[in-house]
Every structure is written in structure tokens, then in C-alpha cells.
Write a structure and sequence with these properties.
alpha+beta; 10 helices; elongated
């Protein structure tokens, strides 16, 4: 028992609406099949690169090479990889397509390697042109026994192997010592930089002026050398290095005499003094104490008012002497008014009563 449904957006009766829905469904299915066919077979063939097809038989495939990978020649993109087959043991079959211009500039003697296409490490097939060989043909098969791998992944892997084999504990300890030594040299390097900067700041003249001054110093340098040599000659060729017969050498007798003299002075003189002081320490204590009491006031006398009075008295005494240096005269004046016992005898000597003045 069939059930017909009425569609409001389709005109007609139920039978007509059913026919129209079936027709629309079949049309959509046909369009879908055509689209899948076009995108599956027609579009790839229409968009496939055009040029010279080459079939490469290589010993290995570089990491990251796949369908669509670029083919480079002298750094420029000249084709791409279209197919890869690694089912055969020991070899890899790689199909590439080169543009006609690049294929015309190459011969079948070219070499091949794998290397990064850009800084991001995307791997590409790199062709290196070589002399000789014949022109390339479409569909030609080329075999290569070697395909060097210069990709970034291989480089990182090999670096890891090198580090794993060489960066041992001894190597780490050696590097640590080198770093410590470098840190120790840092102050020396800094001092050199500071010295260089100081010289640069101090150098206020042109190099020609500084060199002329250096020449002035160099002119006096020979005379300085002669003086230095004469000094060394005087030091080496003196009486201490002469023997009694006048020849050069060490006067052993003289040095023995000096040695005995120093021995006698050290033991006979200073040793006796030390023995005396050590054996009569209690006898010398009163003398030392007396000297202490006598000398202790001296610093105060030199620095206080008493010293000023002493200096004034010395100055007055100096002024009492007059005349030239060879005939100094002492000027004295005595007041005898308060001495009646002296005034009488002086008056009898012809002096004025009460006073007397005389010269030298």
C-alpha cells in the first residue's frame, strides 16, 4: 500500500509530484557522478605538470620527499616529483617532470642530491649539471648509484650522533675548566679595554706629533745607554772586586776582615751591652726613673708659655751683642742705686756715682 504525500512547493497532483521528485533525484545523482569523475580523472590530468618526464632509479630516497616535492636546478624550481615507488628492494623509483627549458639545458650526466628547499627545512630534489652526456628525452630512465643526503633532518641526526659520541663527562669537565679560565681572564681583558680607552682619551695630539716626540726621546736614548753601561762598569769594576795584585776577582781577605769586624761588633759590643742591661736591670731602674722625671716636662715646656719667655730672653741676650762678627761688644747697664756698698768703690774708680757703664 503506497502512500502519496502532497508537496506544497510542487504544482500538480500526487502522481505528477512523484515523477518530478524522481527526475530531480536522478539528475542530482548524474551530476554527482560526473563531478566525481571530473575531479578524479579529468582534473588531475588537466592540472598535471607539462614537460619532460624522467624515471629515476635511485639507491635511497631523501627524508621528506613525496609526491609534489620540488625539483631544483641552481636554486630555481624547474619541476616536481610525480610518483614514488619503493617496493623493489635496494632501489627507489622516482618519476619527475622537468620544464622544457630546464630539460634542454641538462644532459643525462647530471648528478642528484637531496637538500632543504628553504629555511623551513622542506626537502627538495636538487639537480647538478655536469659536462658531457647526451640530451634528455621524454620518458628516459636514468640510474644513479649515489644520491647524497644534505637534508636538515639528516644534519640534525648526525649532529646528535657526534654529540652523543664526543660530549662525554671528560669533555664536559674540560669545557668547564676552559670556561673558568676564561672567566679568570675577564678582569685582564677588562683592564686592557680600560687602558686602551684611557690612552685614547689621553691622546690629544695627532700621531705625527706623537711620533716626533718619540724621535726626541730616541735621540737621547743612546746617551742614556752609555751612562747605564758606565754605571754597571763602575759597580763591577771597583776596589771591592779587585785582588791585591790588581786583577779582577773577589778579595776574600777583605770580605773575611769585614765579616770578622761585624762579628766582633755584634757579639763583643752590642752583646756586652745586652748582657750588661740584662744583668743590672734593677740597678738601672733608678737612673731610668730619674731621667724619666727630668725629660717628662720637656714637651710641655716647649709647647707652653714658659718656652715663649725663654725665647724672649734668648732674643734679648742676642741683642746685647753689637758690632761686626770679628769684634762683638757686650752692652751692659747696671742700676746700682739700691746698692750703697758698691756705689762707694765705683766712685773712687772715677765712675759716676750710682751708675757704671763699660764696654767689652
Amino acid at each position: 500500500m503506497s502512500v502519496n504525500s502532497s508537496q506544497d512547493f510542487i504544482r500538480g497532483d500526487a502522481r505528477g509530484q512523484s515523477r518530478m521528485l524522481v527526475t530531480a533525484g536522478l539528475s542530482a545523482l548524474v551530476v554527482l557522478i560526473i563531478g566525481v569523475t571530473v575531479f578524479s580523472f579529468v582534473y588531475p590530468r588537466a592540472t598535471a605538470p607539462k614537460g619532460t618526464d624522467l624515471h629515476l632509479v635511485l639507491p635511497a630516497l631523501g627524508p621528506g620527499v613525496e609526491n609534489g616535492s620540488r625539483v631544483l636546478l641552481r636554486g630555481a624550481e624547474v619541476g616536481e616529483v610525480t610518483s614514488i615507488d619503493s617496493s623493489e628492494p635496494g632501489v627507489v623509483h622516482v618519476d619527475v617532470v622537468l620544464d622544457d627549458h630546464a630539460a634542454g639545458s641538462l644532459t643525462d650526466a647530471f648528478e642528484l642530491d637531496y637538500r632543504p628547499q628553504n629555511y623551513f627545512g622542506v626537502t627538495a630534489v636538487n639537480l647538478v649539471a655536469k659536462q658531457g652526456g647526451s640530451r634528455l628525452r621524454d620518458g628516459q630512465t636514468i640510474r644513479r648509484e649515489a644520491a647524497p643526503d644534505f637534508t636538515m633532518s639528516t644534519m640534525i641526526e648526525r649532529s646528535s650522533i657526534v654529540v652523543d659520541g664526543t660530549l662525554t663527562r671528560d669533555m664536559i669537565d674540560s669545557l668547564d675548566k676552559v670556561m673558568r679560565y676564561a672567566n679568570g681572564l675577564a678582569p685582564l681583558i677588562e683592564s686592557g679595554v680600560i687602558l686602551t680607552d684611557a690612552v685614547a682619551r689621553t691622546q690629544r695630539q695627532m700621531p705625527s706629533t706623537l711620533l716626533s716626540r718619540m724621535n726626541d726621546l730616541a735621540e737621547e736614548f743612546p746617551a742614556f745607554n752609555v751612562g747605564a753601561m758606565n754605571l754597571l762598569e763602575a759597580i763591577g769594576n771597583n776596589v771591592l772586586n779587585r785582588l791585591p795584585d790588581g786583577s779582577r776577582g773577589v778579595d776574600e781577605a777583605y770580605y773575611d776582615l769585614m765579616d770578622r769586624s761585624l762579628t766582633v761588633a755584634s757579639t763583643g759590643l752590642f752583646g756586652a751591652i745586652g748582657t750588661l742591661l740584662g744583668s743590672h736591670a734593677t740597678d738601672l731602674t733608678p737612673l731610668v726613673t730619674s731621667l724619666k722625671y727630668v725629660l717628662d716636662p720637656m714637651p710641655n715646656m716647649i709647647g707652653d708659655a714658659s718656652m715663649q719667655k725663654t725665647r724672649k730672653a734668648i732674643d734679648q741676650l742676642r741683642n746685647s751683642f753689637t758690632g761686626p762678627d770679628e769684634a762683638k761688644t757686650l752692652q751692659l747697664r747696671l742700676l746700682l742705686d739700691a746698692m750703697p756698698a758698691v756705689a762707694g768703690p765705683l766712685s773712687q774708680m772715677g765712675a759716676v756715682a750710682g751708675t757704671w757703664s763699660g764696654g767689652n
